Amino acid sequence: MSNYHIKHLEEYFQVYRKSVRNPELFWSEIAEEHFLWRKKWDNVLDWDFSKPEVKWFDGAKLNITENCIDRHLYVRGDKTAILFEPNNPEEAAEHITYNQLHERVCKFANVLKTKGVKKGDRVCIYLPMIPELAISVLACARIGAIHSVIFAGFSATALATRVNDCEAKMIITSDGSYRGSKTIDLKGIVDEAVEQCPGVESVLVAKRINTDVKMKSGRDEWLQPLLDKADANCIPEVMDAEDPLFILYTSGSTGKPKGMMHTTGGYMVYTAFTFKNVFQYREDDIYWCTADIGWITGHSYIVYGPLANGATTVMFEGVPSYPDYGRFWDIVQKHKITQFYTAPTAIRALAKENLDYVTKYDLSSLKVLGTVGEPINEEAWHWYNDHVGQKDCPIVDTWWQTETGGILISPIPFATPTKPTYATLPMPGIQPTLMDESGNEIIGNQVEGRLCIKFPWPSIARTIWGDHNRYRDTYFSAFKNKYFTGDGALRDEVGYYRITGRVDDVIIVSGHNLGTAPIEDAINEHPAVAESAIVGFPHDIKGNALYGFVILKETGESRDRDNLSKEVNQQITERIGPIAKLDKIQFVPGLPKTRSGKIMRRILRKIASNDTSDLGDISTLLNPEIVEEIIDELAFVTPVKK
Ligand code: WT7
């Protein structure tokens, strides 16, 4: 029996039991058999959630790029490591082999060295989804510099806040980026940001859109001439397993963004192990995750996890709607994608369009489909299953967080029977539990509570950069000796988990706890509805009442809004009960979303409460203009007629 590659359900249960009975033995066997260490660990695990402190493989020495690149050269040097699909479908895709990746990472690492970057220094990377992004990440890891990738959709202010927080001395960027039919002036944004960043000594600029950008002498340099001069070999820096690998910012419910710090050895072992199992990866597969490397999904499941397994990982520069809504499926057909991993928000957006965009492509290469980032509603799940997977591809609904480093709860395809909207079972080594509001563990099945994890896993973030107290307060103080995820979940009759959403999205109506996700599911089942979001607003009698923001499939919908509202409530009554009926419904053209596709409920709650004087910071929204549009219509919203 292999602990590393689980192939059927019985094996999953055996491996899971072993991982819980003896976590140290379990992870050390995997670490030993499947990775390259310069020196073995002294201790597999030291932990204390009250401090909190977690150390995996302490005393071990390694370099993660040796594991992700060098060790593959002997066996698969000419295999494609990174398959780059440009924004413009007319531009040729680029196949970067493991040999070429090695050379490009080494050269980049040597450039960093000549610019004075040393082990432990922070380097911010603000690049579009072009090969230089993955290569610069790996180049930092090669020399032991700590990378902090900042999604290239963030504003200058957001960029500056993060650069200053981690005190980066260098920013790597490009002249600009392509996004569908538009271009974005990234270098201009960096220039604006750096004015507020006194610690930044140098800015390296990759050429992508060939615009004429201003270069500040003594600070800015074009990357290519430096690479041309650089040596093609760079001896990897030998790192401790617990040395920081990267910092990645995630927004908190309050305050400034949290710089989640991940370390080297445990992160590598866990992301590689979960990649192999959750995607049932095999040597000749062509794996595609549509996320941006600016998010944790891209770090763990575009770069490190796939490369540690010697996989071919696709990087897509563009957007799902360019040149038309068939682009994803065009790419699946073109590169014969075997595993496809995306977000529910993308699925819903594509499901709104004509089905011809899907059916005209040959999707028969697909074996496994994945989703991540938010609960997937039933309607979207079925659309994905029926039309993309053609009822022949298991869907892995993967639940995890920036903080967890890797996937914690997910089906294992062909082993775990899937169930729509359920992330199902914990990965080996993961011990989830549900807690009630008074801090007691909820035992048994068919229960609901706050999702916590009882035992450390190798890729848990070790701290918030520069603020260990905040790390402790945010994750380890709500429930003693447990990591609190901030999510609510239910456990069904067989022990499957369904993530119901952030616990702050729970709305108590007349003393009843109502989760927004199931109500939204019910509404979305109405044939005229494309998407919806529910928030609570204060109500004299019920405490809270429900307010629904509903997007219709056809804009300019001529049907009677009053009737539609009634039908929506009818639907909810049938699915959940009259208690979950909405008091108000507003038909809106869109919903305010963050750049990672999450609905900003904070804003919707304010709008629903008619408290629009101070909406807080909306600059990180993908579509800030929608907020005005929704507010403008507010006066016309009347209670739903009975
Ligand atoms: C939050 C973490 C993990 C990479 C992308 C998001 C929600 C994530 C699921 C899922 C339901 C999910 C949770 C979680 N979430 N995956 N499969 N089902 N909810 O990372 O930005 O750190 O967000 O996303 O609420 O806490 P993130």
Chain-wise SSE layout:
Layout: H1 9-21, H2 23-34, E1 43-48, E2 53-58, E3 61-62, H3 64-68, H4 73-76, E4 80-85, E5 94-97, H5 98-114, E6 122-125, H6 131-143, E7 146-149, H7 156-165, E8 170-174, E9 177-179, E10 182-184, H8 186-194, E11 202-206, E12 220-222, H9 223-229, E13 239-240, E14 244-250, E15 258-263, H10 265-278, E16 286-289, H11 296-308, E17 312-316, H12 327-335, E18 339-342, H13 344-351, H14 356-359, E19 368-372, H15 378-388, E20 395-398, E21 432-435, E22 441-442, E23 447-453, E24 463-464, H16 468-475, E25 483-491, E26 497-502, E27 507-509, E28 512-514, H17 516-524, E29 529-539, E30 543-552, H18 561-575, E31 584-587, H19 601-608, H20 625-633
Parallel strand pairs: 4-17, 6-7, 6-8, 8-11, 11-12, 16-17, 16-18, 18-19, 19-20, 30-31
Antiparallel strand pairs: 1-2, 3-13, 4-5, 9-10, 14-15, 15-24, 21-22, 21-23, 23-25, 25-26, 27-28, 29-30
Helix pairs in contact: 1-2, 5-6, 5-9, 7-8, 10-11, 13-15
This protein binds 5'-O-[(S)-butoxy(hydroxy)phosphoryl]adenosine.
